[in-house]
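Thread title: Can someone regenerate the structure for this chain?

I was given the following input by a collaborator and told the matching structure tokens would be attached. They weren't. Posting the sequence so someone can regenerate them.
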Amino acid sequence: MGGWHRIYGRPAGLIAALGASALVLGLTAAANAPRSEAAGHPAVVPRANDRPSGFLYGTDSWPIAVKGPAPYPEPVLGSPYGGYIGMTGNVFQWQRCGDHSAWSPSNSAAANTNFSTYHTGIGTGVYWFMGGPGVDPHYNGKTSEARAWGVAQAQRALADVARIKVTYPVIFADVELPGSAPGISPAPDNGWNSVYTSTCSGKVKSSGISPEVDRADFKGFTNYIAGHSHFKAGVYSAPAIWASIFGTGSAASVNSSTYEWTYIGDTSSLSPRPTAWCLRGTTNCAQFYGGVTSNDSNAVMWQWSGGGGTSNGVGDFDQIDVSRTP
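Best answer:
Regenerated them for you:
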């Protein structure tokens, strides 16, 4: 997700410290308990080292080799492969000024096989790499136009989703400050904090966008997803990034109907692994945003290792509590 921590390392300043991405797939026991099996295929029972009982790990975005035969194991970690979240679309690719989309057909297929045949994990989920009001070709500083820009992106995201097999019921808006990300984004802030001369120019026309205008864009996207499809709306971001875009007032609040995925605090190591929302034996825990904490039912995902700046040499590793899946 991001333009971009997954392939470029983190840029300077705030973006440098926080431009990482996320997906952690930790699944609860209820979702992973053995059910009726396909003929000849036993249920996959989570290993004891997936804790709490029933948590599974997954991957997101760029491909990571998942070795067979099915049921497929999580790369490196060896426990059952819990799911895959990929970039269903990129606003800049859609607008013809980017050419990269972080999608892996092979990871999606493996996750869907585990989900459909072996009743393990969540299968495939998706996110949309979102553009702020400042890269809207019709930007005029009004909330009505920002809302329309968010709706247009949601419509495109749903069109992209219709062409693939998505089993996880949340579509995430990827809201971040990607920094220097050739091929992913021409705008270091994705148009959340600055207005650009055009969607693709990468040239700032003016600085400063009100949190209310940013919020209108975001709500245009999430309200359309929730109101015009069977999917629920979600968001991927991190605390400081979120505050830098939406402030700390009412525009920053994330309500309980919007599902949240975070990447802070992430690590460059694959050991120790998470226990629930913290790395085992440490105080390094998932940090949510917009008033949401890990105790809230809409806190569903954490990318605990991977991405630019926290590269582990393999890829993005994620955890999700499937008991909170809508």
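The two ends are 22 Å apart (CA to CA).
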